[in-house]
Write a structure and sequence with these properties.
Elements: H1 2-20, H2 43-77, E1 84-86, E2 92-98, E3 103-109, E4 112-117, H3 123-138
Antiparallel strand pairs: 1-2, 2-3, 3-4
Length: 139
């Protein structure tokens, strides 16, 4: 799926760059057609392609990243004592205490605690861990 987006972005970039070339050929063209003022008409297309390029970048790069950051922020704010989590370093544990300074105490084994930053929690791996745990509980 990601390759479709990259092909689409490459296509839009290629079209926008070809629209920047005057009809007479290269910008310093040897035929001189673009130097006598007769090369007009493509200025509007350049702005349209530039606008399309900005929209494509926003749709496929900026918007999904902002959406993921918003989901991560909501996930971290909804953490509670007793939740099982996985850090971005791969450490598994259970939340023992949530501190005021954006850290939490993580119990990795009975009686063994680590103080970690909330931003070090992996939302994807934690969701996979809890999904796998829910799947084994239902059996």
């Amino acid at each position: 799926m990601k390759s479709i987006y990259s092909y689409l972005v490459s296509f839009v970039v290629a079209i926008s760059f070809t629209a920047c070339i005057p009809p007479g050929g290269a910008p310093g063209g040897s035929n001189g057609a673009g130097q006598n003022g007769a090369s007009g008409g493509f200025g509007g297309f350049q702005f349209i392609f530039l606008g399309l390029m900005i929209v494509v970048f926003w749709l496929f790069f900026i918007r999904p990243q902002a959406k993921k950051a918003k989901n991560q922020k909501n996930f971290i704010s909804n953490l509670q004592k007793g939740d099982k989590i996985v850090t971005i370093a791969g450490i598994h544990g259970t939340i023992n205490k949530i501190n005021e300074d954006s850290t939490l105490n993580l119990e990795v084994s009975p009686g063994s605690y680590l103080k970690i930053e909330k931003s070090a929690i992996s939302m994807d791996w934690t969701a996979a861990l809890n999904k796998a745990a829910a799947g084994t509980d239902k059996k």
